[in-house]
Amino acid sequence: MNEIFFLIEEDIEAGYTARAVDVNYSIFTEGETVEELKKNILEAMQCHFEDAQYIPRIIRLHFVKDEVMHYAPGCMGEQQSEGLRPAPAS
Question: 69 in a domain, yes or no?
Fold first, then answer.
């Protein structure tokens, strides 16, 4: 294998976490900064692949950022479609 993918997520306590996406590799690490995380990913890979010749040469980092949006009908001041109109008050 020449390539491995890591899913990178922000973590309130750890800073960032990294998890290998491929089901064949159980690699997980964390770091307070992105630079520390990258260093820890390399170290984790060296531990996982005992023989350096099997370490993938390309490491892809997929950063995921969760954002939360709240929707309140009528809050945008625009006319809403039929499916999104609030129920009439009783």
Answer: no
Three-class SS of residue 9? strand
Domain hosting residue 48, numbered range: 3-64
pLDDT tens column, 23-55: 788 999 999 999 999 999 999 999 999 888 989
Domain count, the chain: 1
Question: Quick one: which of 69, 70, 72, 55 has its CA closest to 20?
Answer: 55
**Joined tokens for residue 45:** 């890979």
pLDDT in tens, 53-79: 989 999 999 999 888 888 887 766 555
pTM across the whole model: 0.71
| Domain assignment of residue 51, yes or no | yes
- Domain annotation covers residue 40: yes
